[in-house]
Structures are given as C-alpha cells and as structure tokens.
Design goal:
Blueprint (H helix, E strand, L loop, with lengths): L1 E5 L4 H12 L3 E6 L15 E3 L5 H10 L4 E4 L6 H6 L1 H22 L3 E7 L22 H20 L2 E7 L1 E3 L15 H9 L6 E4 L11 E2 L1 E3 H18 L2 E5 L5 E2 H12 L5 E4 L8 E2 L4 H7 L8 H14 L7
Helix pairs in contact: 1-7, 2-4, 4-5, 6-8, 6-10, 8-10
This protein binds uridine-5'-diphosphate (UDP).
Length: 326
C-alpha cells in the first residue's frame, strides 16, 4: 500500500514513518517544516516541503505517487496556544484540512487515518473515557479536531471516504532514532528531561488544586511507538472496520507530580519543581479506555509503564541534548 503521511517530520509523524518503513509500506511525506525536522525523515523517501493547504500541489502528489491512503498528522497541536490564537487552529486544522480532503476527493483517494485528540472530550463526565463519551471540547484545539472529524463524517456519507480517527491521549517516549523535539517546548516530559540535563533550572507544575489524588493534572501517556503501531494496524484493517473513531491511550493515568518523580528515579537528577498557576484550557483528568481500540486493532502495548516510557525518552534526550540538528 502507498501511503502519504502529512506532518511526517513531526514527533509522532517521524515515528509513524519509521514504523511504516519497517513494515514495508511505500511512504511519501508532506511537511511544511514549521514544527517538523527534515532530518527526522530518511533522505531516500519522497519528501514534499509544502503545506497541506496547497490543494493543487497535494493533488499532484497524490496522483503522481499513486497514493492509496493518507495518514493525516499535520496540524496545530498546542492547547495553550489554541486559547490565545484560536484562528491558527481553525485555519490550520479545519480550513487547510478541508483543502486536503478536497485534494483527496478530486484524486479519488478513499482512505484516511486522522490524528485526533482526547482534547475533544473536554472535562470528562466519567473516566476512563470510552468511545461513547460525549464530546465537549474546552479548548480551541479540541474543537478544531472535532470539526475535522465531523467533516470526515460528511465525506463518508456523501463521497464514500473511509476513515479511522485515532484520538490520541498523551504521546510520549522515543525510539532509538526519533524523539520529541519541539522548537518551543511546552510538553511535560521533554521539559522535565531538559531540567534533568541542566538546560532549565526547574519545572513549573501548572496547578496544584485540581480534584485529583495529589492536586495535579492526570494524563494517560502512551508510548509513541505503540501509538504508531495503531496507525499501521488501522491502515491494514480499515477496509473491514472503518469508519471508526477510536481512543488511543494506555488506560492508566499519571499525575504531573508522579511523572516528575518517575523522571527523578530514572535520571538520578533532582529535577527541581515549582508550583505555578493553572494553564488555561487544561482538563483535570484525561484517561482512555483503550479496550475497543486494542480489540479492533489487535494491539498489545510494548511499553505499558510510565517508567519504561520516560526511560526511552531519557535515552533519546541524553544522546540528543539539543534534539535534531536542524
Ligand atoms: N504541565 C506542567 N508543566 C509543564 C508542562 C505541562 O505542569 O511545564 C502539565 C500540563 O498542565 C498537563 C500535563 O502536564 O496537565 C501534560 O501537558 P502536556 O503539555 O505535556 O500535554 P497536553 O496534556 O497538554 O497534551
């Protein structure tokens, strides 16, 4: 199967590309290299430095590479930025996403795997969150991803587009080759590890009075390789199981304080932490029920424990102090 990966030079994208190549898929990548890194993708696969909003160009890529399926991971991803710059999220995730869907429709490409998010659930009514949980996003990021999912429903009904939406909980960890490097880092685990490396003097804990066991937010951290394997199984099975909207987490939640404590143990560094104000748009708890995804996709996590996840991230960060060279 010939696959086009949008956002393939990003953190999750680079690992999805790595795993697709290992599993012998034919892979092309489109990435505008605003957040992604050219050196995160192999030099010998077709790479198009472009934005997914360039419909005519994307249509040419789809046609000339005889693409069978798109894995759509390009987009805006930061909760806090979505609260101050919602327009970027509606432009990047909805409007440009629609251009991609139109390029696919015009090229008769009928399969898409979409990187969606747990943020579309908002503050959970119950946990763990299963696929029946209502969607009620409290940040523009989650809203923009939900809007794209809703567009997929209509493309399915009207045009027979088949889709699998994978609603990511918190992607974390690294493979030997690929890790998490954002130009402006906002994510907990890389910030904690940069502090262990002495690149920051402390970690801010955003909020200590949430209704959780230690007052800090609880998240479900899933190893990026386990996450990537879900895309591959979704591709293999989507003709039989699609369309689907699936939750993709580990099924276990860890608080901010617990993550920092795990990193202290693994790195052997003190990692000073300070209590800070809540970050706008953060739900208190996001934990997935992963039963449906695991049974439909036949998955068993390789890295179920937070310590294993932090360990792989630490291995990568300690070998790549400043991330990718570009
Ligand atoms: N967080 C924190 N300090 C940081 C970065 C993140 O306390 O420097 C918290 C954040 O408020 C959230 C959790 O860690 O509750 C995970 O945040 P991250 O940005 O990694 O992922 P998100 O859940 O926003 O996708």
């Amino acid at each position: 199967m010939k696959v086009l990966v949008t956002g393939g030079a990003g953190y999750v994208g680079s690992v999805v590309v790595e795993m697709l190549l290992k599993e012998r898929f034919s892979v092309s990548v489109i990435d505008n290299i605003v957040e992604g890194h050219r050196s995160a993708i192999p030099a010998d696969i077709p790479f198009f430095e472009a934005d997914i909003g360039t419909r005519d160009y994307v249509r040419k890529i789809l046609g000339s590479n005889q693409i069978d399926a798109v894995i759509h991971m390009a987009g805006e991803t930061l909760v806090s930025k979505s609260m101050s710059h919602p327009q970027d999220y509606f432009l990047g995730n909805v409007s440009k996403g629609l251009e991609l869907l139109e390029a696919m429709r015009e090229s008769n490409v009928k399969r898409i795997i979409f990187s969606s998010t747990a943020a579309l659930f908002g503050n959970p009514e119950y946990t763990p969150i299963d696929e029946k949980h209502p969607t009620n996003p409290i940040n523009a990021y989650g809203r923009s991803k939900l809007m794209f999912e809703q567009m997929l429903d209509w493309y399915h009904k009207a045009h027979g587009l088949n889709y699998v939406c994978l609603r990511y909980f918190n992607a974390a960890g690294a493979t030997v080759e690929h890790g998490e490097h954002h130009r402006i880092e906002t994510h907990l685990i890389p910030i904690v590890l940069q502090t262990a490396l002495g690149q920051r003097d402390h970690v801010d804990i955003y909020g200590n009075n949430y209704d959780t066991r230690d007052g800090t937010c609880i998240r479900d951290y899933i190893h990026v390789e386990d996450l990537a394997m879900a895309h591959i199984e979704a591709l293999r099975r989507m003709d039989d199981i699609g369309p689907q909207k699936l939750n993709l987490g580990n099924g276990e939640g860890y608080s901010v304080k617990e993550v920092i404590e795990a990193a202290r143990e693994i790195t052997g560094h003190p990692i000073p932490a300070r209590e800070a104000d809540r970050r706008s748009g953060d739900p208190a708890v996001l934990v997935a029920s992963s039963e449906r995804t695991r049974s439909l996709l036949g998955l068993k996590p390789r890295y179920p424990e937070i310590r294993q996840i932090v360990r792989t991230a630490w291995d990568w960060h300690s070998r790549n102090h400043h991330g990718y060279p570009d």
